Amino acid sequence: MKNKTSVVPREGEAQPSRCPDNSAFKQQRLPAWKPQLTIGSVLSSFFLTGAFCLTVGVCLVLSANSVREVQIDYSDKCSNCSKLRENSSNWNKECHCSINFTLKEDILGDVFMYYGLQNFYQNHRRYVKSRSDAQLLGRNVNIQRSYCAPFSTYRNGTPMAPCGAIANSMFNDTIDLFYNYNSSMIQVPLLKTGNSWWTDKNVKFRNPESSNLSAAFAGTARPPYWQKPAYLLDEEDERNNGYVNDDFIIWMRVSAFATFRNLYRRLRRVRRFAEGLPAGNYTFRISYNFPVTKFKGRKHVILSTVVWSGGSNPFLGIAYLVSGTAATLAGFVITAIHLKLRKKKTYFQKQ
């Protein structure tokens, strides 16, 4: 075994230094701002923060309360259709119901129609992953290698288009709005396109490249719970078919909560409805297709306006109010503690 020898520096030789370089950075001599916290600066920061949050919170709450909204639960009002849909063998049978309601005041401005679901959990991990983004981009992919199973192929090997549990459970009720004017029914014009996000419509979803959309989907089949193939989702507008259908795109953006609403239609402000929805009697005509009884869910249809802060959701305003109140109370507590300690300091100095 070899002996280890250490190198001993000779006399007169300088040993290598372990000290860092004599620079401003390595010697920590860079200019820095060192705030001196005083009672005045601390209290002013707490009170100013509280005043700011309270002001913003009040504005947001008042803005949310100014939203005009009509919400109707039609789960029980269409009970006959609900019972029909619980039997999967009746998937090809149509069922319609009508719901009457009255607007006591005009709803001016842009009006949006939403459908709402309650107790429908879209945030389950397997449900969220059950899709093929490559297929939704119009690519020719092997979906058996995706996370779409068991909604990927049929027993005969025919692939589903689109595949996955999200697409298969797409909301497919059809809702039309009618205005009762002088004993006549006037259909309210609604826009079914332009409702999805621009990035979803133009980046994340694309149809397969083909001159004929039905030919592009040849060799595929619709999901089991769909009544139409993807290329016939909108028979009135050919550009709103396939993977770029607005209703389909909006549904594919899953919700984080069990109770949610999705944008369904927008009011087309023309003729009698140029200023919005006038007061009067209205009727929702609903083609009932989406069953909710088995998972104890509820369905709603909502008419709502929007303001600069969004829709009728006071959560952000309440959060600002709570934060502002906490900051203000903290400021008063610090003030009380400071005054108490200052009195004790003055007392001991006199002694």
UniProtKB/TrEMBL annotation:
Keywords: Glycoprotein, Membrane, Transmembrane, Transmembrane helix. The keyword Nucleus does not apply. InterPro entries: CDC50/LEM3_fam (IPR005045). Pfam families: CDC50. GO terms for biological process: phospholipid translocation. Its main location: membrane. One of its GO terms (cellular component) is endoplasmic reticulum. The keyword Membrane applies. It is found in: Membrane. Belongs to the CDC50/LEM3 family. This is Cell cycle control protein.
